[in-house]
What does this fold into?
Amino acid sequence: MMMYKSAFDKLIQTGKTSSSFVFFGESTFLIDSYTKMLSNIEDASILSFYHDEYNFKSAKAHLSQSSLFGGQNVLVIKNEKKIAKKELDEFIRLCEKNTDNIFIYAYYGDNFQAYNAKSFLAKTNTNVVRFFHPNHHEALAIVQNVVDEKKVKLDRSCIEYLLNIHNSDIALACNEIEKLSIYDKVITTKDIEHLVSGLGEISTEDFIKKILHKKEFTQDLLSILDHGEDEIKLITALTSYITQLYMFNIYIRVYGTPNAIEILGYRPPKQIVDEKAALSLKFKPNTYYRLQTLLLESELKMKSSNIDKGAILLSTLIRVQKLL
It folds into this structure.
């Protein structure tokens, strides 16, 4: 039966989870996080398939055989395409036959209709979980957990500042925590300005705004990539930012003025709200549609194997500016 994060967390806390899992929803960060957490089993034999790598026969064989070292067999499938229901049923059957094994299917597509139904896999013990985008308070708590785990000296106001810099992208904020963990001192907002946005590196949000204002961006792009940013995450950050602008655009056209609490779920500084509201009105609804289509298609191409992600990213950003 399908459930949400809160109910699933209770199962984890009580140790009553299944041996098979289907994860889907709007938050790729949470899908990734729970997949990593549940597959992180000591001495397990793990087989992972990413997107186009998926092969049913190899996956079935992995769950069917005994572990070479006497531990658990773990099968992880990450895909934006749906795998066939009969194949999904077979993996679940193998896990129910041998509950020591673990099967995790992380679906990154946006066709949730079948998975969202109460009847989906209702005759099994599989945990089917939909992950929504965390609200502002949930995002703060998630980043706070990473801060505590890495023992970084960062207070709540700095965490909020870090999230604002990255347009509430939890994955990007957590990546910055990794970088900040090498400093054995209290981190301030000035440190974040210097360490995150400084050293010749433009912040992700500033880079996105440069794209949307149709300014030259190639040197900034090279700088961001040189500092270790991932091409797919840049695309998803741009997609998220444009989605926010579209939400501002719709709200303003309906109600006349923006309300950040109703649009975003939290209240950023006034200048940020005013800036996003003004920028959102520069583009027509059809432009938003074409931009989202382009970005989603490009992200899908990047997730295919043996692809030059950098070339696709550069081409996509050039095409974005042509659509504006």
In short: The first helix runs from residue 5 to 14. The domain at 137-323 is CATH 1.20.272.10 (Zinc Finger, Delta Prime; domain 3).
